C-alpha cells in the first residue's frame, strides 16, 4: 500500500484510520462509493475512529474512491476543520477532480505495468540467450547433446545453489578469457 498526504494532520488521520482498520476512507475503498462525514462529532459510523478524529479538531471528512479500472485501488481523502465543511457544490467539484486524477493515475499505473512487463521479458530473453550460449559451449567441450548439456548446466546450478543464468554467465566469461571465474563442467 502506498500512501501520500498533503500535510502531517492528514498523515496522522490516515494512520489512525489504518490502525482501526475501519473508517470513511477504507469504506470508500472497499465499497467504491463516496463516504461523507458532514460532522465528525455527530457521526455514528466508525465510533472509535470518529472519537480519534474529533480529538484532532477535524470537523468533516470526504473520502472519494478513484476508479482505476481494477488496475489498482486509490481513495482521495479530504478533511475540513469545520463541521459541514463540504457543500454539495464542493462534493461535485471534488468528484470531477478525482475522476480526472483517476484517469491520469490509471494511465501511470498501466505504463508502469507495461514497463515492468517489458523489463521482465528483456531479462528473460537475456537469460535465455546466456543459457543457450552456455549450453552450446558445454556441448562443444563435452561432445554431447543439447539435453545432456542442459542437464550438466542444471546440475551445476543445483549443486552450487546458484541461479542457472549466473552459472551460464560464468561459463561464457571463462571462455571469453575472464580468468577470475572457473567453469569445469564434465559429465
Description of the structure:
The chain has 187 residues and is mainly alpha-helical. Helices cover 59% and strands 9% of the residues. It has six helices and three strands, in the order H-H-E-H-E-E-H-H-H. Strands 1-2-3 form a three-stranded antiparallel sheet, with helices on both faces. Helix 1 (8-20) packs antiparallel against helix 3, helix 4 packs across helix 5 and helix 5 crosses helix 6. The model has no long low-confidence stretch (mean pLDDT 86).
Q: What is the secondary structure topology, with strand pairs?
A:
Layout: H1 8-20, H2 24-31, E1 35-37, H3 47-54, E2 60-66, E3 74-80, H4 88-142, H5 146-160, H6 164-175
Antiparallel strand pairs: 1-2, 2-3
Helix pairs in contact: 1-3, 4-5, 4-6, 5-6
Question: Order of strands in the sheet with the most strands?
Answer: 1-2-3
Order of helices and strands: HHEHEEHHH
Strand element count: 3
Shape: elongated
Q: How large, in whole angstroms, is the Cα Rg?
A: 28 Å
Structural class: mainly alpha
Primary descriptors:
187 residues, single chain, elongated, 3 strands, mainly alpha, three-stranded antiparallel beta sheet
Can you summarize this structure?
The protein is built from six helices and three strands, in the order H-H-E-H-E-E-H-H-H.
